[in-house]
Design the sequence.
């Protein structure tokens, strides 16, 4: 017998957070996310997602213990953009039990149906700018910052609950080193153009630089599947979050005639530094994390945002812009002593971007799957 209990966003989260210990016990690749960050993500007072969204949390119990979790949520910016009555589920983690998974997802669907949704998509936790997809390939590798990790059985449980693939996403492993001659020449040729300037983001002008990043992101990604624009509030939150962890050496802003034309941002991989903290920041976790970040230095980073304004993409002269961005990020990582990074995610059908990553030496090593299901009345 499975008991499903509903909790408000920002409410009691102990079981919701703690169930991952049971789900991932014995998984050598799993790294528990920092509880404090997940709590903030789920808190309507702290996550700007909730300015245009709403949601609830569900936990599954059996024999008095929590054995699974999921969220159901609505993004009104998505509804406004697509008009498709699609709601979402996220934070899907369960033991290997078809009944637990089915009942959790049914509870999410029921809540979404009552809100007028006709389709459900996920796992997306909570938006496309956070964690997206269920890991279906690459289980042996640990997660990077802001990426999901799952057991091999979890995608199957979603499918048994009536869901089908909507889209696959790729993650790429990249070894920091010397780019090949073609990439290096493209970098040098682009930097030699008098109208092209290259710089890193700056902690001194972080707020203005984040505004640039958001502006380019909203233009560059606007035609991608599932895109929802970043809001000014999300930009302000990003600036606040980045202030503690941003490493300017692994950021890049390329301008053409003084206008930001392309951007790339990588962040140090906090999951590498927090493996032994087991999600806890107290009593000593904060001190350990900051020391490892500022003194020890991370050896890995995740490129999570790269984009080129649409107006420049098909100008032959500027065709190597993406290679310039990749090469600059590689060089910054080398200066920091980084060994490797993750690039992604990218859409499975984004040929130009995936080709550029392969040209840089990236190897696809993970696949995430987003599922969909049409709903009807219970």
Sequence:
């Amino acid at each position: 017998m499975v008991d499903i209990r509903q909790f408000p966003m920002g409410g009691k989260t102990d079981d919701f957070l703690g169930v991952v210990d049971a789900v991932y016990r014995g998984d050598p690749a799993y790294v528990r996310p920092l509880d404090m960050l997940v709590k903030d993500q789920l808190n309507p007072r702290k996550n700007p997602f909730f300015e245009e969204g709403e949601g609830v949390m569900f936990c599954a119990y059996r024999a008095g213990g929590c054995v699974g979790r999921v969220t159901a949520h609505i993004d009104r910016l998505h509804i406004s953009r697509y008009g498709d009555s699609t709601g979402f589920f996220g934070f899907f983690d369960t033991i290997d039990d078809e009944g637990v998974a089915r009942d959790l997802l049914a509870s999410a669907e029921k809540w979404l149906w009552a809100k007028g949704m006709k389709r459900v998509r996920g796992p997306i936790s909570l938006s496309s700018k956070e964690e997206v997809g269920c890991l279906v390939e690459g289980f042996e590798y640990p997660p990077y910052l802001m990426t999901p990790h799952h057991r091999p059985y979890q995608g199957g449980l979603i499918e048994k609950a009536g869901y089908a693939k909507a889209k696959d996403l790729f993650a790429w492993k990249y070894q920091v080193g010397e780019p090949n001659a073609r990439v290096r020449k493209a970098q040098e040729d682009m930097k030699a153009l008098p109208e092209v300037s290259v710089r890193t983001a700056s902690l001194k002008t972080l707020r203005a630089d984040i505004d640039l990043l958001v502006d380019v992101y909203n233009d560059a990604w606007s035609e991608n599947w599932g895109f929802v624009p970043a809001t000014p509030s999300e930009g302000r939150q990003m600036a606040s979050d980045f202030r503690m962890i941003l490493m300017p050496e692994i950021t890049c802003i390329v301008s053409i005639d003084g206008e930001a034309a392309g951007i790339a941002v990588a962040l140090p991989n906090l999951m590498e530094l927090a493996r032994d903290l087991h999600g806890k920041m107290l009593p000593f976790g904060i001190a350990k994390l900051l020391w490892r970040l500022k003194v020890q230095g991370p050896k890995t980073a995740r490129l999570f945002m790269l984009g080129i304004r649409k107006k420049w993409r098909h100008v032959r002269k500027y065709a190597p812009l993406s290679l310039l961005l990749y090469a600059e990020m590689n060089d910054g990582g080398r200066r920091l002593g980084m060994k490797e990074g993750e690039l992604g995610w990218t859409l499975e059908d984004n040929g130009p971007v995936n080709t550029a990553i392969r040209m840089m030496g990236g190897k696809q090593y993970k696949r995430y799957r987003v599922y969909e299901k049409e709903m009807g009345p219970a």
About this structure: The chain has two domains: 3-168+369-374, 177-338. The chain has a mean pLDDT of 94.
